[in-house]
Structures are given as structure tokens and as C-alpha cells.
Amino acid sequence: MEIHQVRYFLAVCDELNFTQAARKCHVTQPSLTRAIQLLEKEFGGFLFHRERSRTRMSELGRVVQPYLRGVWEQSLAAKAQAKAFVSDAPRQLTLAMMCTIAPKLLIQLFSRFRTLRPDIRLDVIDGTAQSIEERLIESQTEVAIYCRPDREPDPRLHYLPLFR
């Protein structure tokens, strides 16, 4: 079951007309009908009785309607919560780095980053290669610039070479 099928089902429940429900959902009537048919196939029975001039909910449709309405309302609530979280969340990036790695180039990079993304606060933390890698593994920092030529890459981390 897909969320658009739930939305289409509820529109047909409200309108009791496939054409009007399709208009309400901004889709073509054949697309809406196909989605309802797939839902009926998944549920194993008809959700609506289709007659020439009238559409009625079937018993199965009446049984699943409150559950699907709850699914739809929960999906809207989740979307609203996610939107609020993203818009309210402080935008911050924590960067751990070894101060010995190309400081002049990195200062230019940070300056350009601040110009392009003034909405993101950049926190830079200095450390040794070992302490930086530990911070990454423990999710105490999002990104790091460091060098550990003495050991193999840790499989839990994603590496992107900056210099060769």
C-alpha cells in the first residue's frame, strides 16, 4: 500500500464519485481508478460498489476507512513535525581537523563556505588523527579533515581524498 492510494481512497470516500475524487486529488480518473484497484487487490475485496450513477462504500471499505484515515492523518502529522524540526533546528556543522593539513587552503575554504552558507554555523575542533577518528566513530563530529597513513581506513567511515 502506498500513501497516494490512501489519499485517493479517502477522496472517493468523501466524494462517492471517482471523477470528482480524481479532480480533488489532481490526477486523472484512470490513474485514481488503477490505484484503488491495486488497493482492492491488496486487501482482497472491493472497497466500493460502482454503479452507473452512484458509488457506494462496500462493507470492506467501511471496515478499513477509519484505519486508512488514521494512516493519512498520521502521515500529515509526521510531515508537519519533520518540517517544523528542519525549520527550527539550528544549522550547525562540526568539523574536526588536524591543524597541520594545508591551513592556508582550508582558511580560504572556510571563508568561501561562510559566504555561500551564512545560515550554517561552522564549529572547528582541533585534534590528533586518533582523537578525530574516535570523534567521527562516536558521532561527536559530522566531518573531519585528518590523515592516518599509518593504518587502513576504518570501514565504518566514508573517506574522500582532498590531496594527493
What features would you describe in this structure?
The protein has helices spanning 3-15, 18-25, 29-43, 59-88, 103-116, 129-137, and strands at 48-50, 55-57, 92-97, 121-126, 143-145. A hairpin with a 4-residue loop joins strand 1 (48-50) and strand 2. It has two domains: 3-86, Winged helix-like DNA-binding domain superfamily/Winged helix DNA-binding domain (Arc Repressor Mutant, subunit A, Orthogonal Bundle); 92-145, no CATH class. The strands form two sheets. It has a three-stranded parallel β-sheet, with helices on one face. It is α/β, with parallel strands linked by helices. Helix 1 packs across helix 4 (59-88).
Give the topology, please.
Layout: H1 3-15, H2 18-25, H3 29-43, E1 48-50, E2 55-57, H4 59-88, E3 92-97, H5 103-116, E4 121-126, H6 129-137, E5 143-145
Parallel strand pairs: 3-4, 3-5
Antiparallel strand pairs: 1-2
Helix pairs in contact: 1-2, 1-3, 1-4, 2-3
Determine Rg (CA atoms, Å): 27 Å
Write out the CATH superfamily name of the largest domain.
Winged helix-like DNA-binding domain superfamily/Winged helix DNA-binding domain
CATH architecture of the largest domain: Orthogonal Bundle
Main pleated-sheet profile: 3 strands, parallel
Instruction: State the domain count.
Output: 2
- The CATH topology of the largest domain: Arc Repressor Mutant, subunit A
Number of strands: 5
What is the terminal-to-terminal distance? 49 Å
CATH class of the largest domain: Mainly Alpha
- In N-to-C order, the SSE pattern is HHHEEHEHEHE
Number of helices: 6
Strand order of the largest sheet: 4-3-5
Strand residue percentage = 5-15%
What's the overall geometry? elongated
